[in-house]
Design a protein that fits this description.
Layout (H helix, E strand, L loop, with lengths): L14 H48 L4 H4 L2 E5 L5 E5 L6 E9 L3 E5 L14 E6 L2 H6 L5 E6 L5 H10 L5 E7 L5 E10 L6 E4 L18 E5 L34 E6 L11 E6 L1 E2 L2 E2 L2 H14 L4 E5 L5 E5 L14 E7 L11 E7 L3 E4 L4 E4 L4 E5 L2 E5 L3 E2 L6 E5 L10 E7 L1 H26 L1 E7 L6 E7 L6 H15 L10 H4 L14 E3 L5 E3 L1 H10 L1 H8 L1 E5 L4 E3 L9 E7 L6 E3 L4 H4 L2 E3 L2 E3 L5 E4 L5 E8 L1 H12 L6 H63 L1
Antiparallel strand pairs: 1-25, 2-24, 3-21, 3-25, 4-8, 4-20, 5-6, 5-9, 7-8, 10-16, 10-19, 11-12, 11-17, 13-14, 15-16, 17-18, 21-22, 23-24, 26-27, 28-29, 30-37, 31-36, 32-33, 32-37, 34-35, 35-36
Helix pairs in contact: 1-6, 1-12, 1-13, 6-9, 7-12, 9-10
């Protein structure tokens, strides 16, 4: 049978056994390396387990790392199908009554008819799209996104490119009709009358009538910052009388003799030259005019002045100017243009910047918006009342009217329906439970690390001889200084004092201090076995006594003693500490810690200041100089630490895992080399013993022949 050998038939030696024993001596070297590899693989497996457990801790910390995540509120609504309330950073307990008059809708526009979606339009250009509200929160300086369109792009390609652009405030689609006509549909990402903007550069006219037919280049549009609302609820229309407007706190204070004043940056028509006011009476024969009547008078006046512009009111109650705004000599691109309602100061000249003794309604600054050729749906703002006070919102989730409180509107209140009653109360038990779960996960991780780093002496007694032997048993991480450092860092983050909020030194001067500046102060202490324990009663007491202080202990947050200076966004790279901000003269240029933008590597955009490390500051017009603090609390420090450790480029885990895997690969290489030597050795000695058997067989054969010959001779 192939592969079968029987040793020692000639010599009488058990050569197979001898070969096996000699091979076993060499194979022992291989087994030792295999054992090393298995231990290394166990270490790598434990290391991956460590990553999972650390990730679990980070997940628990993430629920506490940002101020709005740290919040937990009990919210109630007697009509959840109509409106609900929730709380985030800065929210306070409250009870509210709402009436929903109008929901916010999304702007949607259409192109002209396009014959084919797969035929090149041959109009290379660069589209500039406004960014969404979410994108602007992430990066306040990024207001637009550019999308490059090549000559060979089809309608389908344009749609794909717009949708692939990150952070755009618009989404694109294609509507194909049964008659074969196709249209590009652009839909705003955000709701509200603000909608989105789109423009192009390159001069190929892709958006105009010779291309997609989206924009009307002969006209521009601009809308007021304020809105006209009606006393009965909802927005004003052309039929609303001025005495029925909601001018202040759900009341009307307009009286006979009041006027609408329009301030023109220049006056080029019959009204004369230079800046000045044009006024329109709100009453005729003692009776209040309607909004529509006054708009008609305004349009007649604009026409007389030679303006190719008309004024109207939209579904959000905003005044909209449409026409040739860019070239109208009266409007000067609306730079300084304003509309106000109030009582005239009899001594004032119409050329004076201020002519009212009392301004009863200011429509605010006007912002430009695109003049679309085909509007399928003009986005409108939500309108609702809070405790009888009318408010408007670009979104159906209004987080701007009351700090920290989010009103989510779902349905318009039915006629005669009672107010929607909402309540918001802090849920301290829920927050305490989140903190306790975080500590439990922390203890689980620490226990895992300790069990796999400790070493111990194990004593065994021989049952026959009674001799005792001692052996040292080690964990897979025993002696690994990196794992020990990891454990120490995590323990330090949990137990250290957050100096910036402790009231000590610069922390007190930077704008906030609390007695709850360490975990021990809120009832999280080290137990006898080294684990962390939570005194739930003490923790809840701390939350009730100084909720903001406990929140700052855990979260990444910023604060300032100067009301004109506010910490805005920040990133994982933002550096904690105190920042001294100083305005340079009366400009929008600043010094940060004594450095200007060139030396400090930061940017200012209006009154928004963004540093190279990602932290930004919101600065008021009246601000001159002050300090702001950015601090990372316990949960933020741990999530940032884990994120950096898990970095795919140079993170601790990536490098350590590679080290373990390299070690395993190196051991496997030695195993392969040793096994090859063993196999070669086995083959060599097997061949030698086989040669010995053959030699002895030949010798025996020769001896037998010789004896046979001698025997024949003797006869």
């Amino acid at each position: 049978m192939a592969g079968m050998s029987v040793g020692g038939l000639v010599s009488g030696l058990d050569t197979n056994s001898i070969v096996a024993q000699l091979t076993a001596l060499e194979q022992a070297k291989v087994k030792r390396e295999v054992a090393k590899k298995e231990n290394a693989e166990k270490t790598l497996e434990k290391f991956k387990d460590l990553q999972t457990r650390l990730g679990n801790l980070a997940n628990k910390a993430t629920a506490l790392e940002l101020p709005d995540k740290f919040n937990a509120f009990k919210s109630l609504s007697n009509y959840e199908d109509y409106a609900v309330v929730s709380g985030k950073e800065g929210a306070i307990a409250g009870q509210y009554e709402l009436i929903v008059n109008q929901l916010a809708t999304t702007q949607k526009v259409s192109s002209g008819v396009i014959d084919s979606i797969n035929t090149s339009l041959n109009k290379p250009t660069t589209l500039t799209l406004s960014t969404s509200e979410a994108a602007q929160k992430s990066n306040p300086l990024k207001k637009t996104v550019d999308v490059d369109i090549s000559a060979g792009d089809t309608l389908k390609d344009i749609v794909n490119k717009i949708n692939a652009a990150e952070g755009t405030g618009v989404k694109a689609s294609i509507m194909s009709m049964a008659n074969g006509e196709n249209r590009l549909i652009l839909t705003a990402v955000d709701t509200g009358s603000k909608g989105f903007t789109i423009s192009e550069s390159g001069g190929t006219g892709l958006l105009g009538q010779g291309g997609l037919g989206i924009l009307d280049y002969d006209n521009q549009s601009s809308r007021s910052g304020g809105a006209l609302l009606a006393l009965h609820g909802g927005v004003a229309t052309e039929d609303t009388k001025f005495t029925d407007l909601n001018t202040t706190l759900n009341t009307n204070n307009i009286k006979n003799g009041d006027v609408v004043g329009i301030y023109l940056p220049t006056q080029a028509g019959a009204a004369g030259s230079g800046a000045g006011w044009v006024t329109f009476n709100l009453f005729e024969s003692g009776q209040s005019k309607t909004v529509g009547q006054v708009l008609e008078e305004i349009n007649d006046s604009l026409k007389t002045a030679g303006a190719n512009v008309t004024a109207s009111i939209n579904s959000s109650g905003e005044i909209v100017l449409s026409g040739d705004l860019a070239n109208d000599p009266n409007l000067n691109n609306l730079n300084g243009f304003k509309i106000q309602i109030g009582t005239l100061n009899n001594g004032a000249s119409l050329s004076d910047p201020d002519i009212f003794s009392a301004v009863k309604k200011d429509l605010g600054s006007f912002s430009s918006c695109d003049a679309f050729a085909n509007v399928l749906n003009a986005g409108q703002n939500a309108v609702y009342s809070i405790d009888g006070i009318m408010v408007t919102s670009q979104s159906n989730s209004d987080d701007k009217t009351i700090t920290g409180t989010v009103f989510t509107l779902k349905k318009v209140s039915a006629p005669g329906m009672e107010p929607i009653k909402l309540s918001l109360e802090p849920d301290m038990d829920s927050i305490a439970n989140k903190i306790s779960e975080f500590i439990e996960e922390f203890n689980s991780l620490m226990k895992f690390i300790d069990e796999n780093t400790k070493s111990s002496i194990k004593e065994e007694e021989d049952k026959i001889t009674g001799k005792k032997t001692s052996t040292r048993q080690v964990g897979v991480f025993t002696g690994d200084s990196n794992i020990s450092a990891l454990r120490d860092n995590l323990k330090r983050m949990l137990t250290s004092t957050i100096e910036q909020i402790s009231g000590a030194g610069d922390g007190k001067a930077s704008g906030y201090s609390t007695i709850y500046s360490s975990a021990a102060r809120i009832g999280i202490t080290t137990d006898k076995d080294g684990s962390m324990k939570v005194d739930k009663e003490k923790l809840t007491k701390a939350l009730n006594a100084d909720f903001e202080g406990v929140r700052k202990l855990f979260t990444a947050n910023g604060f300032s003693s100067d009301p004109g200076l506010k910490v805005g966004n920040f990133t994982k790279n933002s550096t904690t500490g105190i920042y001294n901000i100083e305005r340079i003269g009366g400009t929008n240029e600043f010094l940060v810690n004594g450095l200007d933008s060139t030396a400090g590597g930061f940017k200012s955009f209006g009154n928004l200041l963004t540093l190279g490390n990602g932290i930004s500051f919101e600065i008021s017009d009246s601000f001159t100089k002050g300090n702001a603090t950015f601090v990372r609390g316990i949960a933020s420090m741990i999530t940032t630490f884990v994120e950096q450790a898990k970095s795919s480029v140079d993170g601790y885990f990536k490098k350590s895992e590679k080290t373990y895997q390299d070690r395993i690969d190196s051991i496997q290489e030695r195993i392969d080399q040793l096994q090859m030597r063993v196999d070669n050795y086995t083959a060599r000695i097997t061949s030698q013993f086989a040669s010995l058997e053959r030699s002895m067989g030949n010798l025996q054969s020769q001896t037998a022949n010789m004896m046979s010959t001698l025997s024949g001779l003797s006869r």
